[in-house]
């Protein structure tokens, strides 16, 4: 059985990732290179599509060169070029796709289009060895509870409006928290200093959840308790208290819908993927629920949780080995791409 | 083209490449994407010798500027990739 090497290119949000992965028979996948550069905006500002695309355009060539140098391979050893088709933000996705197409033509390598969410799931499975977990996929752009069944990653529950990460990121802007290395990371650090819990809207609807009410609630709380407090509230609460309260509320919602999905399918493990999956408090809350159920919790570190190119290479190579190649005509990008649209040919 | 009066701003570019292979490659790379506002921007790509010929018809001066801006950003990225990543 020959070995395979895939190049993976990711740029659906503000992280640009280039990964090179090696599959050898009966061996765990080997990460030959996993490089990333993040477009970080000043505090109080989010990232806009055209600026993000500009960042990706200016970093992708050097990142690809560095990846090949790190992996110490030549393009002729690469079997396929994998790129994120979606979901995500149009302009940045497109700039990465253009480079993928260019390389594909320059070196006559097949293209593989990858669903970003499936990338997270497959890298999580590979790194942790989790067999058939309920997957909680949580990031700035996505919040889904997923379970595998009959060749599809089925969405059991999701946010009805914004992602948990979006809620956190937007709150970070309001209280002017730094975006370096990421707003979520800095909220997590602030939250550890919080001592007082502020009641905020908790919204779970069956298998789904909603974070827009929580965001409005914490924005109102920031106004009432931090920016324009009444005399009795003045100086009573800190932004750490609000960060703490926001996390406790939002993460409890995630634990609830994850548990509901586990009960529904009789799962004995949970895998958390996506940027918000790095959060230690979320991991802790989830592990408490898992312990109560006698279930196992799987999570990865920031190399794989946060958007990266290696996950695209991994998911892409699995699909490639089962015959999934993307023609140039089909190598367009799409902002909306449901996780369950992908035919998971590589699993039974 | 239908409704030409609705797209009065016309731009025609000839982008010189080293050879027709590169020009054709660039065309293949740009071809798959549809213009976002197809009622306001129409694009035609072709190759003439070693030149990539790009023709745009746009509804307004603003659409023309935005479209050309994006086109040049994309073209630059493709050409830079061809130049810088030719010996991986």
From TrEMBL, chain A:
Q: Tell me which EC number(s) this protein carries.
A: 2.3.1.234
InterPro entries the UniProt entry points to: ATPase_NBD, Gcp-like_dom, KAE1/TsaD, Kae1_archaea_euk
Q: Which GO terms describe its molecular function?
A: chromatin DNA binding; metal ion binding; nucleotidase activity; tRNA N(6)-L-threonylcarbamoyladenine synthase activity
Its UniProt entry gives the catalysed reaction(s) as: L-threonylcarbamoyladenylate + adenosine(37) in tRNA = N(6)-L-threonylcarbamoyladenosine(37) in tRNA + AMP + H(+)
**Which cofactor(s) are needed, names only?**
a divalent metal cation
UniProt superkingdom: Eukaryota
Entry's Gene Ontology BP terms: positive regulation of transcription by RNA polymerase II; telomere maintenance via recombination; tRNA threonylcarbamoyladenosine modification
One GO cellular-component annotation of the UniProt record comes to: cytoplasm
Task: Report residues binding substrate.
Answer: 137-141, 169, 184, 188, 279
Q: Tell me the compartments it is located in.
A: Cytoplasm; Nucleus
**UniProt entry tagged with the keyword Amino-acid biosynthesis:** no
Per UniProt, where does a divalent metal cation bind? 116, 120, 137, 307
Q: Which UniProt keywords apply?
A: Acyltransferase, Cytoplasm, Metal-binding, Nucleus, Transferase, tRNA processing
Q: Where is the Gcp-like domain?
A: 31-313
The note describing how and how many cofactors are bound reads: Binds 1 divalent metal cation per subunit.
> Coiled-coil regions in this chain?
none
Q: Which family does it belong to?
A: Belongs to the KAE1 / TsaD family.
Spell out the protein name for this chain.
Answer: N(6)-L-threonylcarbamoyladenine synthase
TrEMBL record, chain B:
A GO BP annotation: tRNA processing
What are the protein's UniProt keywords?
A: Cytoplasm, Nucleus, tRNA processing
Record flagged with keyword Cell membrane: no
Statement: the UniProt record of this protein carries the keyword Glycoprotein: no
Reading the lineage from the top rank, the first entry is: Eukaryota
Q: What subcellular locations does the record give?
A: Cytoplasm; Nucleus
- One GO cellular component, as annotated: cytoplasm
- Chief localisation class: cytoplasm
Q: Which family does it belong to?
A: Belongs to the CTAG/PCC1 family.
Protein name in UniProt: Transcriptional regulator Pcc1
The scientific name of the source species is: Schizosaccharomyces japonicus (strain yFS275 / FY16936)
| Gene behind the chain | pcc1
């Amino acid at each position: 059985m020959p070995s395979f090497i895939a190049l993976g290119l990711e740029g659906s949000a503000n992280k640009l990732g280039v990964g090179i992965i090696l599959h050898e028979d009966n061996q765990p996948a080997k990460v030959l290179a996993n490089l990333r550069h993040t477009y970080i905006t000043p505090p109080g500002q989010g990232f806009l599509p055209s600026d993000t695309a500009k960042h990706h355009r200016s970093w992708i060539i050097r990142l690809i060169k560095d990846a090949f140098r790190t992996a110490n391979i030549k393009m002729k050893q690469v079997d396929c070029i994998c790129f994120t088709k979606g979901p995500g933000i149009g302009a940045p996705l497109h700039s990465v796709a253009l480079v993928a197409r260019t390389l594909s033509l320059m070196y006559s390598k097949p293209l593989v289009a990858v669903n970003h969410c499936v990338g997270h799931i497959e890298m999580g499975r590979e790194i942790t060895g989790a067999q058939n977990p309920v997957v909680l996929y949580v990031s700035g752009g996505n919040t889904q509870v997923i379970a595998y069944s009959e060749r599809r990653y089925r969405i059991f529950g999701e946010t009805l409006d914004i992602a948990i990460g979006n809620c956190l990121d937007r709150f970070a802007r309001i209280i002017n928290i730094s975006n370096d290395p990421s707003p979520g990371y800095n909220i997590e650090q602030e939250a550890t200093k919080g001592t007082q819990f502020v009641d905020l809207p908790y919204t779970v609807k069956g298998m789904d959840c909603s974070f827009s009410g929580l965001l409005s609630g914490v924005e109102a709380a920031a106004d009432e308790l931090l920016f324009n407090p009444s005399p009795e509230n003045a100086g009573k609460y800190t932004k750490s208290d609000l960060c703490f309260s926001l996390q406790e509320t939002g993460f409890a919602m995630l634990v609830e819908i994850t548990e509901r999905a586990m009960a529904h399918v009789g799962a004995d493990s949970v895998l958390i993927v996506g940027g918000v999956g790095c959060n230690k408090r979320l991991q802790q809350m989830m592990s408490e629920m898992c312990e109560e159920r006698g279930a196992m919790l799987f999570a990865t570190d920031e190399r794989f949780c946060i958007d990266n190119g290696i996950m695209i290479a991994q998911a892409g190579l699995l699909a490639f080995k089962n015959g999934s190649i993307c023609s140039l005509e089909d190598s367009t990008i799409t902002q909306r791409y449901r996780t369950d649209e992908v035919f998971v040919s590589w699993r039974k | 083209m239908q409704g030409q009066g609705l797209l009065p701003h016309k731009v025609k570019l000839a982008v010189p490449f080293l050879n027709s292979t590169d020009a054709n490659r660039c065309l293949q790379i740009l071809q798959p994407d549809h213009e976002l506002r197809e009622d306001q921007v129409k694009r035609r790509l072709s190759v003439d010798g070693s030149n990539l010929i790009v023709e745009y018809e746009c509804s307004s001066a603003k659409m023309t500027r935005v479209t050309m801006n994006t086109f040049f950003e994309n073209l630059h990225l493709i050409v830079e990739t061809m130049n810088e990543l030719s010996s991986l």
